[in-house]
Amino acid sequence: MKKFLTFLFIFFFSSAIYAQEENTAKVQHDSLYISTAELADKIIEEAYRHLGVRYKYGANGPRSFDCTGFTCYVYNKFGYKLSRSSKDQATDGRPVEGSFRNLQKGDILIFGSRKNKRVIGHAGLFIEFVDSTYTDFRFIHASTKKGITVSNLSETYYSDRFLGARRVLPDMVPSEITRPETSDANVSEDTVYVEASPSDRQIVLLESGRWFYIDPSGRMTQPDSSLSIILDGNGKWRTVSNQGQKIPQITKENQPQVHSQPADEPRQQSSAKYHTIKAGDTLYGIAKKYKTTIDKLCQLNGITKKTVLRAGRKLRVK
To answer: Which of 53, 91, 209, 248 has the fewest C-beta atoms under 10 angstroms from its C-beta?
Structure first.
């Protein structure tokens, strides 16, 4: 009974903090105030609507885009005016600093060009981390051969050219943790996962991917920014150092002297394959047709099994 009450105590406070975290930053959209997280979701949803649209240098959409034409078009839908060139987008908003885990959905990612990886030449939008190690992430962008596509930082071409990130939206999380005075008892049971750490503290992992320590008294503290949390082979949560996984900062040295170059991408022919969704299509049927799995389709397209398939949208299948 004592252990059960302890768990409820932890769950009570962590759930309340999660709710506080998601509603910290409010922005106005369509005459309504919504959280930054909700707005970021809408921005990425809009970006996905153009998946597969062809690339054309200097194009502003919606039938074709270049890299910054795409980011401008998406943000403009929500009232944000971005600079038109990748050189200037590298100064829009404010820099995202620290470890990779500080990136948030909708951040503008800046990459080096095809000819010179230290000269700004490409931009995309951050979507999400691939796993809890915060060492790889997905982003959506316009590339010269694939058009609007989703790529991973783990692709050597992009990891070699990643120059930094800029944030236009408000931060999603508060700068410090405070204990809530009240809490809603009707919280969702899948809001938080609690596992024992090697020390006498507990690790509280939120559904958003953020995590905290909680001591026996119930006090919560933020972990050092150099640490990440992973699930090891024994099914236990443990902390690991993520030093070295720092967001690079854009400097004068990587500012181009001329207009930024067209969007970059690997030279080899793409093996990506797409399916145009038709009325009546299901993830099961599409996966069966292309001899793949539903989980793989979700991973390639940044969707879930509950995502509504809209006729006319292109779905990446390979």
So the answer is: 248
